[in-house]
Structures are given as structure tokens and as C-alpha cells.
Amino acid sequence: MARIFITGSADGLGRMAAELLIEQGHRVVLHARSQARAEETKRNVPQAEAVVIGDLGTIAQTRKVAEQVNALGAFDAVIHNAAVGYKEPKRIETEDGLSHVFAVNTIAPYILTALIAKPKRLVYLSSMLHQNGDPTLEDLMWKARAWDGEQAYSDTKLHDVLLAFGIARRWPGVLSNALEPGWVPTKMGGTKATDDLDEAHRTQVWLAASDQPEAHVTGEYFYHLRKKGTLPAAHDVVTQDRLLVICERLSGIALPE
Fold it and tell me: Cβ(37)–Cβ(11) under 8 Å?
């Protein structure tokens, strides 16, 4: 039996993953962005061990999420599921001066990775759209470019793969992998999505808790339980390290050795 923390698990794929893990006998801690959402989550998933609260759009609240998780003790795995989608019609700036999409999708998983006591496994949700991400890491805050919500999302989903692979190199004792769940009809994916919703949450569950040898790997990218190729730039160690340096500078939080 494993103990697993899942970000963004009040609904959608995060909640689906939590319910499957609980069904398999694992202990699961969930996350919601507000007290109201946390109460709703407790009602919807009463078997969850706990629900931590915090808006991942701000550095201060993301820090508090990490503090709450650490106060609960050690975890076997963390699934970085929380994300905002590709439909934001305009650039939204957070209280920290960051693009909202970048803050939630890139900075938040970096901060939680840096501050939560190292688990045995880390799982980062990316997207097939990471293939369209910009590997130059220029203008991450979208201050010079005209806003493009889908491109901003694609960039951050590439960042999630870079984080997973960069952490896999830095922390050889931790299994760190990324995956794409497919384009599925969740609140984020929309009603026109064409992939199988029943398959979308299974890979993150498998990577977080499976005893199968195929899941005991690191620095890999998956789709529906199988390894899949990524944008080649995702494997560039200079780009990985550059993103980690940027995240440290913007968050003020260093990644532990």
C-alpha cells in the first residue's frame, strides 16, 4: 500500500486517479484550491485521508500547500496533476507578476518538488501539445508576445517534461516521469475531445503505485502505459537546467541536492 499526494484533485483526472488508487487500497491525500472546494472534495471522495488547500497560482499559497503535505508525513509518490488549460482568452498576471498559466503549470510543480520531502516517485502530467512548446524559454511571462492561450499552455506542458527529466537526472534515487493523458472530455478538454476518458487517469496511477518493472523507470515519457517519444528538446540537459535556474530565480526557492 502506497501513500500518494495528488495536486488538482477536486475533480477531473486528478479525482479519477484518486478514486482508482483508493480502490486499489492506497492512501491518498487530495488538493483543492479553496476551502469551499476542499469541503466539496471531502464529500465526493470521503475515503481520502486528507485534503490540503491552496491556490497554486500564487507562490505563497503553493508554499503553504507544501507545508501542509510535509506536516502529514512521508509520501511514496506525488502526482503533479493540477493545471489550467489552453482556453484562457487573455494574459492574466498573478500577484507575483507571473503569467497565470506559467504560475500554475510550471512554477507550482517546481516549488512543490523543491519543498515537499522527496517521495519515491514523481509523476508530472504533460500533454501531446508539449510537442508545440517553445524550447527557447524566451518571454515566459508573455510580456513581449501577443497572447496565445494554446501556445502558452503548450509551452508549460513542455516545461513539465523538462522538469520531470531534469529531476530524474538530479535525483537518481527518485523515479521521475512525465505522461500525456490524451485529449479527453474533461472540463479542461471540452466536449469535442476524442480520446478515451477511461484510459486517461490510469497511467499516472500506474507510475505512482505499480510494482510492475515497466513502471520502475525514470526520465521517461508515457501515453496509456507505454513509453512515447517527446519533443527532442525535452532531452536537452542544458534546456532542462536552464528551466530549473529560471524557476529558482522566479520563485526564490532552490532545488535541494
Answer: no
Q: Compute the radius of gyration of the chain from its Cα atoms.
A: 17
89 burial level (CB within 10 Å; 0-12, 13-18, 19+): exposed
At how many degrees (to 10) do helices 237-251 and 108-115 cross? Answer: 90
Cβ 14 vs Cβ 79: under 8 Å? yes
Q: Which of 87, 168, 64, 170 is nearest to 122 (CA)?
A: 168
Q: What is the DSSP letter of 192?
A: T
In which order are the strands placed within the sheet that holds 77-80? 50-53, 27-32, 3-6, 77-80, 121-125, 175-180, 221-223, 226-227
Residue pLDDT, tens place only, 91-128? 999 999 999 999 999 999 999 999 999 999 999 999 99
List pLDDT tens digits, range 189-229: 555 555 555 677 899 999 999 999 999 999 999 999 999 99
Q: Give the span between the Cα atoms of 209 and 175, in whole angstroms.
A: 11
The DSSP output letter for 179 is: E
DSSP E strands, the chain? 3-6, 27-32, 50-53, 77-80, 121-125, 175-180, 221-223, 226-227
**Which residues are marked as active site?**
153, 157
**Which residues are paired to 99 by β-bridges?**
93
Cα dihedral 115→77→193→137 (10° resolution): 40
Looking up cell 520531502 gives: 117
Q: How many Cα atoms are found within 13 Å in the side-chain-facing hemisphere of 149?
A: 10
Cell numbers at 208, concatenated:
505512482
